[in-house]
Amino acid sequence: MIKRIGKYTLEFKDRINITGYGCAAGKKEAEGPLGRNFDKVFYDSYAGQKTYEQAESFLQQEAFVTALNRAGIKAEDVDFLYAGDLLNQCIGSSYGLKEFSVPYLGIYGACSTMAEGLILSAISVSSGAAGISACVTSSHFCTAERQYRFPLEYGGQRTPTSQWTVTGSGSCVLEKSDKKGVRIARATVGRITDYGIKDANNMGAAMAPAMGIIEP
């Protein structure tokens, strides 16, 4: 059962638990403060694949399989899989997850893709549309550079304030459960906000206003 609170927030009356989770990351991420928490780390940007795009798909596979194993289920037990990445037509997700033959819904929210996946998964499970739902998202520094800026092979000089896209993937499995653990209790969905930021190297300023518009 789902209850709407105000204009932006949903409350899930059922206990929607995250019963499985997994993550995979790259070398730079492993060197950061969260490095010890990643399930798998790939120090090769190609992750043993032929292209950076294939590497990103592989990261999704690793994260999803890890989440399934933690939940103690198989891919065929998943009723809906929400997934997305930063590439054209969510191609990283499509190729990375096709072998699992799970009902798949591609989503694109850039930095918000995981949050969107969790919200949609919780709605699916709470409404009864799915017994088990899962979400996956990913990004890769090298694929993002090719997609949005300049391919690394170009050898362009990066500005001191340029962004560095994460190389990594995360996945969660959601289902109704009375067991203790992390659960989705409520979800707040924001709206599009544009304050006219023109600096292409300052994405933080463009995204920050959306965090401050949620009304009580």
Structure report:
- With 216 residues, the protein is of the alpha/beta class.
- Helix content is 27%, strand content 26%.
- The chain has helices at residues 27-30, 52-71, 91-97, 113-127, 141-148, 203-207, and strands spanning 2-5, 9-26, 40-42, 80-84, 104-106, 132-139, 168-176, 183-188.
- Strands 1, 2, 3, 4, 5, 6, 7 and 8 form an 8-stranded mixed beta sheet that branches.
- α2 (52-71) packs across α3 (91-97).
- The longest helix has 20 residues, at 52-71.
- The radius of gyration is 18 Å and the shape is globular.
Question: Could you provide a short overview of the structure?
Answer:
The protein is an alpha/beta fold and 216 residues long. It is built from six helices and eight strands, in the order ββαβαβαβαβαββα. The model has no long low-confidence stretch (mean pLDDT 91).
Query: In angstroms, what separates the terminal alpha carbons?
Result: 22 Å
Q: What is the percent of helical residues?
A: 25-40%
Largest sheet composition: 8 strands, mixed
Number of helices: 6
**Extended strand count:** 8
Mean pLDDT across residues: 91
What class would the helix/strand composition place it in?
A: alpha/beta
Which segments are poorly predicted (pLDDT under 50) over 5 or more consecutive residues? Answer: none
Elements, N to C (H/E): EEHEHEHEHEHEEH
| Cα Rg | 18 Å
Strand content: 25-35%
Please state the overall shape, judged from the principal axes of the Cα atoms: globular
